[in-house]
Design brief:
Layout: E1 20-31, E2 34-46, E3 51-55, H1 62-69, E4 77-82, E5 85-86, H2 92-101, E6 103-106, H3 120-127, H4 133-138, H5 142-148, H6 164-176, E7 182-186, H7 194-211, E8 214-218, H8 222-228, E9 230-235, E10 238-244, E11 247-250, H9 262-267, E12 274-279, E13 282-287
Parallel strand pairs: 3-8, 3-9, 6-7, 7-8
Antiparallel strand pairs: 1-2, 1-4, 4-5, 9-10, 10-11, 12-13
Helix pairs in contact: 3-6
Bound molecules: adenosine-5'-diphosphate and magnesium ion (MG).
Amino acid sequence: MNRTRTGAVAPTHASRGLGVRCEEVVHIYRADGTDVVAVRGVDLVVPAGERVALLGPSGSGKSTLLAMLGGLLPPSAGRVLIGDDELTGAGEAALLRMRAHRVGIVLQGAARNLLPYATPLQNVRFAQRSLSRARRREVMRPDELLDALGLAALADAPVPQLSGGEQQRVALAVAVANAPGLLLADEPTSQLDHPSRDAVLDLLDEVNRRFGTTIVVVTHDPDVGARLGRTVTMRYGRVGQEGRHGEQFAVVGKDGSVALPDTVVADWPPGTEVLVERDGDSIRLRRRDS
Ligand code: ADP
Ligand code: MG
């Protein structure tokens, strides 16, 4: 692959990354009189320029949380801040501007992200259509982006002729085309083989390094989590645990609750009474003898 290596160039725009802050964020889907509480109080801080993988079983609220970070779904309660801007209560015009200029989003289902009858090259050019001349010189060129993702030979093929995995990579190229301050990607490697997945991860690295882009990726792939460095694992609409460079941490919630590792939960079902014994900096948990 003929990639442009830009690691040696000083990142002149490293400060452009947008941090994320969620405070007690809740989302409830209301459908036919039944409520589904998809996100039940998430507190999460992602500093500008950080790279995070959102993990967790299917149905745990990952996509819902990501959509709220992108201003695509309003929180039912709580606050979401992107950079200094509070999304809660922001008007549709402000949210559209944010998505057009500062936040790149890849939704689940690659085709939803693309102009269907255009080519990959046209899709990327369209994403860059409103850049100023000065900005255009800073961002990655369309051919450079498509080449980095192994799509150079398909640049002029109509999108419907591309495979799911190819469309998925075009969607990512479109999402990073404006060198956004924040990239939100929902399962961007789910349809990719390992070489394509690694090309995607290399591009995320490059965008993060070159533009300071904060990256939040929903994934099922532990290897993707390992590459990004920080993992946030969701369970039942809450942040269950965090991993940093391979070490796993339980997270204390606002109500003092701590999510136990799955291996412990298997032996201690909900309702188990646990004695908490404190010994200096250490805390031991002991099941009540029945
Ligand atoms: P994940 O991405 O972790 O698989 P989701 O955020 O898609 O989880 O879903 C969280 C919960 O919300 C699930 O119980 C799911 O069934 C429900 N849900 C998702 N989208 C909708 C919707 N549009 N209407 C009703 N319920 C939904
Ligand atoms: Mg999902």
